[in-house]
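Please review the protein record below. Tell me whether the encoded fold seems credible here:
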Amino acid sequence: MKAFVFPGQGSQFVGMGKDLYDTNPLAKELFDKADEILGFKITDIMFAGTDEQLKETKVTQPVVFLHSVISALCLGDDFKPEMVAGHSLGEFSALVASGALSFEDGLRLVHTRALAMQKACEANPGTMAAIIGLADEKVEEVCKEVSTEGDIVIPANYNCPGQLVISGNTEAINRACEALKAAGAKRALPLKVGGAFHSPLMKSAKEELQSAIEKTSFSTPKCPVYQNVDAKPYTSPEDIKNNLIAQLTSPVRWTASVQNMISDGATDFTECGPGKALQGMIGRIDKNVTAHGIAE
């Protein structure tokens, strides 16, 4: 069975989508529509901006979403997903590609999400760190031990065996990194991110996004969507909405999502979007399945 997966932010690069815009009429139409919806020329930044511009929150999430969704839709008859999933931001791309959300509504929600997360980061400063080479259970245990009532750290992204990203207040992250290295982690790497994503520090952003999601119309997708919050497949629009609302303050259960997709018959994974991050994760989760990307 064919599964299509969609990456989160961090894999953006200057020039992304330019070939599609120049050679595919559907891509040009959708990119131009995006400029109109957002009210600024995001395509100028995508195609010929700077790395710094691409890192702006109001830009980063929409550009990865646009590249991912448009890449998938431009596959035409070759885009026949039997199941889909997306990592964090990528869940919005997966929902649009599968028909649960319209392109326009998906982009508006992503833009709202990006701005809400930026505000939450400024109100509740925090950070994230990647923990390499330690069992998930041990990371969970240490996070609980070093957290205090007003200074927390929690597991945020269960990416693949031996790679778990933690999220929380900066001091708690620092304590956790030291404790995890002492517990045997090969590496504990602070990440260059703007805040503590997928943690309770995103509560204000969740509330703002919830309001936007509740006002948006969702449809039944053409195939099951394996959602981040519990790694299970969904087709009910109401369930999908509720899970999407919970996503911003909940861990991304990517390892379990891929394992569940494989258990349900997935043998071929196609990553739609910039970079190869998900292909690498899938290869470390199960070496018996095929994982590849699509050309720009």
Notes: The chain is about 50% helix and 15% strand. The chain has a mean pLDDT of 95.
